[in-house]
Amino acid sequence: MIIRFYLTILISIISGVTVFGQNSWGGGVDDDPFHFGFTFQYISSEYKIVKKPDWRAPFIDPEDGSQVKPDLYSISSPTSPGFGLGFVSNYRMGKNADLRFTPALIFSDRFIDYRYEDPEEFKQQRIQSTLVDFPLGIKIKSDRRKNFRAYWIGGAKYSIDIVSKKKTNDEDNILSEKFVKNTRNILWYETGIGFDLYFEFFKLSPEIKLSNSFKSVLRPEEHPYSAPLDKLFLRNFQFSLYFE
To answer: Which of 41, 69, 112, 237 has its CA 20 to 30 A from that of 190?
Structure first.
């Protein structure tokens, strides 16, 4: 429903802009070697979970040999929404190519659902996350048609998780209340498509992008929620509005 809502808005904007044929619209932003802007982002985040071969096996407390949780039935990661705010630095490499640096502050928690053979047992792990993103990408643009052009963008980004350590401190928690933890530094690859829409004094660029972490972000630990997991890869769907 959310994706359909944004697509409806995007089609409405494109239809409205293409009615007008003022080639001077956009404030000449595409003619400058460097230009800047800002962005608002909606993010849908989830994990790609790789489980260990014996992930269904119950976790045994190493101190007293007792079973901490029932046998597992499934482990899954539902999508969760987030948002981001950022800036745009754009270098014009040529008529149809730009180099873009778009740092942003991202607020996007992730979830892991644990279901057990006992239907009354259920546990959801919430992994809190506040990321500072440093994406670097190459934007390949079509020729401008009046106040519209399409583009593809691809590149990589480096992220630092700045979430408070107090929120992940579980040293005094019992085994059944431990947290799943992620690495602090994340490297991603990403690709997407978008449209440049030219208004009288600025350019608006709706963009859809997919991002995946290169490596697993799991910090392995010996407790009932981390032990069944072999790897966790992050996947993000991102809808952005760039104002330049």
So the answer is: 112
What range does the domain containing 187 cover?
2-243
The total number of structural domains in the chain stands at: 1
pLDDT at residue 19, rounded to an integer: 45
Rounded Cα–Cα distance for residues 109 and 128 (Å): 5
Please say whether the dihedral angle defined by the alpha carbons of residues 153, 130, 4 and 200, taken in this order, is positive or negative. negative
Rounded Cα–Cα distance for residues 29 and 203 (Å): 8
Q: Find the helix or strand (DSSP H, E) in which 213 lies.
A: strand 203-213
Show the CA angle centred on residue 3, arms to residues 207 and 47, nearest 5°: 85
At residue 89, φ and ψ (nearest 5 deg) are -125, 120
pLDDT tens per residue across span 167-208: 678 887 888 889 999 999 999 999 999 999 999 888 999 999
| Contacts by 126-131, CB closer than 8 A, 24 or more apart | 127/179, 127/180, 127/181, 127/182, 128/163, 128/167, 128/168, 129/161, 129/163, 129/182, 130/105, 130/106, 130/161, 130/162, 130/163, 131/105, 131/106, 131/159, 131/160, 131/161, 131/162, 131/186
User: What DSSP character marks residue 16?
Assistant: H
Torsion angle, alpha carbons of 13, 15, 21, 25, to 10: 10
| pLDDT one-digit tens code per residue, 191-202 | 999 999 999 888
**Which pTM was predicted?**
0.84
- Of the chain, the end-to-end C-alpha distance in Å amounts to 28
